[in-house]
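### Sample
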Amino acid sequence: MHLSDFIRPDRVVVPLPGSTLQDAAGALLDRLIAAGAVAHPERLRARLAEERAEDLVGMGDRAFLLHYRSDAVKELVVAVGITRLPVERELGESDETQSARIVLLIAAPPRQAALYLQVVGAFARVLSKPDVVGTVVAQPTPEALAALPVFAQVALRDQLIVRDLMTERPRSVSPDAPLKDAALDMVRAGVAGLPVVDDGGRVVGMLSQRELLQHLLNSYLQRGHAAPAPGAPGVVDARSRTVRDVMTRQVLCVSPEQPVAEVAAMMTNKDVDRVPVVREGRLVGFLTRGDIVRKLIGS
């Protein structure tokens, strides 16, 4: 299966009418309805009218990608349009705007969630290349756009695997690193967790905000009691604590070749937000719930 399988001339609009993004999206929806691709037009039209921020990926001055999971369609459908002049949208409450000439509308039923994510991600990656964008906007007819080789060159796997989405060469920390240094590193990097690896690169634990919060809470509560004498048996000076003292040793690790759907189910069942990706026990990547969204839609 290739990206070109989802681009049909009867669902391409060149030129795409509309001076605003909402007008352009409405024209694409009308084309899908005319092509018989929407089972319940009123449902999808109502969803477009909501204008949810999470339904839109704005790719700089290259393209707008509108994507919806809805039972208004029975199968995944794609509509593509090229406007004569760039259409604009406002960026939040600022005076800044974003404009582009390419507008895509992708809709899929909930049962095709995996395929939907693959297609959205593939379009986002392809249209991140300025040369591809230039080629697309230069096409004079729907037939010419649908026949572009660049779309036929993008193959979609039967299912996504962890390697497709994971962050490679992730940040990590040594079990012997001072806890204070590790916490500061997490704050500065804006990450909520770090895999703990030994000198051989093997995962031996996980340090997350959960462990840090528990440590800080325990330290706070102890301040209300008489402090034990320094050096007393079983007492560890908070200033000398290392990552090893606080990290969790029960870590859910996954393989780069595991299906994303399987891993996502495990993360949900075990209430885990992030997992190290290992090969033969050694850290090769990191996957978070946020990664699954950000990587796929290119935001």
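The radius of gyration is 24 Å. This sample (CBS domain-containing protein) is used throughout the tutorial notebook.
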